């Protein structure tokens, strides 16, 4: 996947969490972006169903 296929965003994390994530990315020989993307893919459900409440 190229950067043209991605969307840039800004997130604010606790500095210690980013240190750990960067270290893990090095261990896995991947970028921090790839590591966070992988974590989100595993965390989020395969299908999201949003039900609009009746008012």
Please give the structural blueprint.
Blueprint: H1 15-27, H2 32-43
Helix pairs in contact: 1-2
Description:
The chain is mainly α. The protein has helices at residues 15-27, 32-43. It has a domain at 14-48.
Summarize this, please?
The chain is an all-alpha fold and 55 residues long.
Primary descriptors:
2 helices, elongated, 0% strand, single chain, 55 residues, mainly alpha
Low-confidence stretches: none
* Count of alpha and pi helical runs: 2
* CA-based shape: elongated
Structural class: mainly alpha
The largest pleated sheet is described as:
none
The share of residues in helices is 40-55%
Estimated radius of gyration: 15 Å
Encode the helix/strand succession as letters. HH
In whole angstroms, how far apart are the ends? 42 Å
- The overall pLDDT, averaged over residues, is 93
Fraction in beta strands:
under 5%
Compute the number of strand runs: 0
